[in-house]
Design a protein that fits this description.
The structure holds two protein chains of two kinds. By secondary structure, chain A is an all-alpha fold. Chain A has one domain. Chain A contains three helices and no strands. By secondary structure, chain B is mainly α. Chain B has one domain. Helices cover 75% and strands 0% of the residues of chain B. Chain B is built from 14 helices and no strands. Chain B is globular. The chains are: A mainly alpha, B mainly alpha.
Chain lengths: 71, 396
């Protein structure tokens, strides 16, 4: 009747996607150098996190628009 | 008749727009990440863009739920009755500030009308259960659990980084925009599907063809306009009623909403945007502090979810019975429909909820600043929120 495997897939995919996004973004914010602890390495690490996050969002847009992945 | 149905369908699209602005924009408005007007403008534009991006849902809206194969034909009159039921229910829930699913209202309306016009046999019960009822129960649950964990994670990572708070506000702008875009690709299409179904039923368009460009364009405009009007009542409930949303929660909730909607629409297990969004907010509230969730409000929302489909179906069934009288019945339906909408609109003026009243004034965040929690200014602000909320909801 109900497609439990599809439901499970959606649940797991949501969980993984949301947690990765939140993890990367939070980590990026955490790593951002504050006024009392300036650091070049932290800035690079934080930027990497934000870029990965942005890629995730772009992938989301790619999934929304069928024209992009059906062509 | 066809013109009347199209006009009604567009009005439904419009109500859908202002009903669902809250899904994407309630939390960024509540935390002050976006100014209310800016938020609804972004949401409107992205809904407009989203509506043009995909027509997959529109093509499948009529298929499945109402059996068409056994020679049963749905008529424009029945679609008309279904839309009246859906619109009236959307207006009532908006007046009460309840984030109910516009899709459920639409499906409920069509089901109610079909039962009256074509008999109970015209409804595929298993499709109804597996595609609408069960997902409706599961959607807020999935979103809630995901948002709960996401909020915990975000707090754990940034607990000792007070500078991170503002960063989450920027993050919210992106996640909420993504929700808006996803909403546009989904919800405008339901109306396109209904209009296309009407055109096919009336013989203007061949069966099985997709929506015409002008249909896509007017549906996109109608939902964007509705979104721009901003359903402040529902935004208030989702953004400040369920729990006082902090930027961390807002970001986590929106990220969970986005993930759940994208996963569901991509993997073919349709979840209601509205239910996912509300579930996320409740989950993120639990993730910060279980006591911060106002279960009374959450309960009211849950009840609204349960009765949306049957209530819209009942009203549509009534409309369908009257419509059976012929042109006179249709006229009565139209007049009563317009009358109810006007009445609800006038009633709403008495307890206006505007963009000025939808923000959480000061974010009291126990995790971040336990020592600033009891300052006088914050207490005053919190009280103002409570009073404002009570004015809208006397029962509370």
């Amino acid at each position: 009747m109900i497609d439990w495997s599809a439901f499970l897939a959606v649940a797991i995919a949501s969980l993984v996607a949301a947690l990765s996004l939140v993890f990367l973004f939070s980590l990026g914010l955490r790593l951002l150098p504050s006024a009392d602890a300036p650091s070049r390495a932290r800035r690079i690490a934080a930027t990497t996190c934000f870029v990965l996050c942005g890629l995730g969002v772009l992938f989301g847009i790619y999934l929304i628009v069928p024209a992009l992945h059906q062509a | 008749m066809v013109a009347l149905v199209i006009a009604l369908a567009l009005f439904f699209d419009f109500t859908n727009g202002f009903h669902d602005t809250a899904n994407a924009m309630a939390t960024p408005i509540a935390t002050g990440a976006l100014k209310p007007r800016t938020a609804v403008t972004i949401a409107a534009i992205l809904n407009l863009v989203g509506a043009f991006l995909s027509t997959e849902v529109a093509r499948t809206i009529s298929g499945g739920l109402i059996r068409e194969d056994d020679g049963i034909q749905i008529t424009p009159e029945l679609i008309f009755a279904g839309l009246i039921g859906a619109i009236v229910w959307n207006m009532i829930t908006w007046l009460l500030g309840l984030p109910s699913s516009s899709s459920h209202a639409l499906f409920g309306g069509l089901i109610g009308a079909a039962i009256v016009g074509l008999g109970v046999g015209s409804i595929d019960g298993s499709v109804l259960l597996s595609k609408i009822v069960l997902p409706a129960l599961l959607a807020p649950f999935i979103a809630g659990v995901v948002a709960f964990l996401a909020t915990k994670l975000a707090y754990a990572l940034t607990r000792r980084a007070p500078q991170a708070q503002n960063g989450f506000k920027y993050g919210q702008i992106f996640t909420s925009s993504l929700v808006s875009l996803a909403h546009g690709t989904n919800d405008a299409q339901k109306t396109m599907g209904v209009i296309t179904l009407t055109l096919i039923a009336a013989g203007f368009q061949s069966s099985g063809s997709g929506p015409a460009f002008w249909v896509i364009a007017i549906c996109a405009l109608a939902i964007a306009l509705g979104t721009y009007m901003g359903g402040w009542r529902i935004i208030k409930t989702v953004g400040t009623g369920i729990t006082d949303v902090t930027p961390v929660q807002g970001f986590s909730a929106e990220a969970s909403t986005t993930a759940a909607i994208l996963a569901s629409s991509h993997l073919g297990f349709a979840l209601s945007t509205t239910q996912v969004a509300s579930g996320s907010v409740i989950g993120s509230g639990l993730g910060r502090d279980a006591r911060a969730v106002r279960w009374r409000v959450a309960g009211r929302i849950a009840i609204a979810w349960l009765i949306t489909l049957p209530a819209a179906a009942l009203m549509a069934a009534l409309a369908a019975v009257i419509a059976h009288l012929g042109p006179v019945g249709i006229t009565i339906d139209a007049l009563v429909g317009v009358g109810v909408i006007l009445l609800i609109f006038l009633r709403s003026r008495r307890t206006a909820v505007t963009k000025e009243t939808v923000r959480v004034p000061v974010i009291v965040d126990a995790h971040q600043n336990p020592d600033t929690q009891n300052t006088g200014a914050q207490n005053t602000d919190t009280q103002q929120t409570d009073t404002a909320f009570e004015r809208q909801d006397p029962a509370r």
